[in-house]
Structure prediction request, 226 residues.
Amino acid sequence: DADVTQTPRNRITKTGKRIMLECSQTKGHDRMYWYRQDPGLGLRLIYYSFDVKDINKGEISDGYSVSRQAQAKFSLSLESAIPNQTALYFCATSDVPGLHTDTQYFGPGTRLTVL
Amino acid sequence: LAKTTQPISMDSYEGQEVNITCSHNNIATNDYITWYQQFPSQGPRFIIQGYKTKVTNEVASLFIPADRKSSTLSLPRVSLSDTAVYYCLVALTSGTYKYIFGTGTRLKVLA
Prediction:
């Protein structure tokens, strides 16, 4: 979805390096999310933010940190990258859910390789 | 926390109707059911969402029985471009965020 952009799209780095993945959205949504996807597996939630002042850990937050710089921007950092963090990373956004409704809009993904 | 179980893979032929069933035995009162589609190297895309009975949109139908312990995504007259992974999720509308993707169902549409 072009309304959710991620940079970089591909990144190769070395063990121990600090890496930042950035996500921007123009949908005006308050809620933003970071997921990782490993080959052949589903997506796992790393962190989520319901507004600029709200940050929450997901299933697999160890080794990651996030920053919500503005409503439209949500960054994911790997403080000291390790090879098992090699994965496809997705950012997503959503509006405040209605009664029994909630839709997430995903970015194109960032393919990260840690050597 | 509601978990979902789906078939790992399915094959179909063009023009057929495809039904993918998802089991969610521990679904809670406020949980609703959502299906996403994912093509290789792309982010998931929302298909349909429902709470009970039947929901239909321009691309799919979602059937949810009264006990809500399962749901079925129905894709009418599939084409080759429907080859993708389909995820069933359950999620709360409020409170602590719980939105868990499983491994999904890999649908392959054959000519």
The interface with chain A takes residues 32, 34, 36, 41-46, 49-51, 87, 91, 93-94, 97, 99-104 of chain B (CB under 8 Å). Chain B is about 0% helix and 50% strand. The mean pLDDT of chain B is 89.
